[in-house]
Amino acid sequence: MGKKQKNTKDTPRQEFIFQRKNYLFMFLGIAFIALGFILMSGGGSDDPTVFNPDIYSFRRIKLAPTLVLIGLGLEVYAILLNPHKNK
């Protein structure tokens, strides 16, 4: 009796939905979002009766939310990116 060989033409090949380029942009977006939240943190005071004006710094009001929005934009781009598209 001969050995049975699997016919590779009949079995469908499994592929991931996203390719390497998609995951690269996803991780980059996550890094931007994490950095934005890290920059947004802090500035509190141990004494609740003392006001700390450091919460209105450029880093917390402008830079950190901008980084979070850029990260979210990168996430949307990574999801919509089609690496199979030929130019």
Question: Can you walk through the features of this model?
Answer:
- The protein is mainly α and 87 residues long.
- The protein contains two helices and no strands.
Concise summary:
The protein has about 90 residues and is mainly α.
Features:
87 residues, mainly alpha, 2 helices
| Helix content percent band | 40-55%
Oligomer: single chain
Q: How would you describe the shape? A: elongated
Global Rg:
24 Å
Largest sheet, described in full? none
Query: Helix/strand/pairing class, anyone?
Result: mainly alpha
Summed up, the helix count is: 2
Topology, number of strands: 0
Strand content: under 5%
List the helices and strands and how they pair.
Blueprint: H1 20-40, H2 58-80
Helix pairs in contact: 1-2
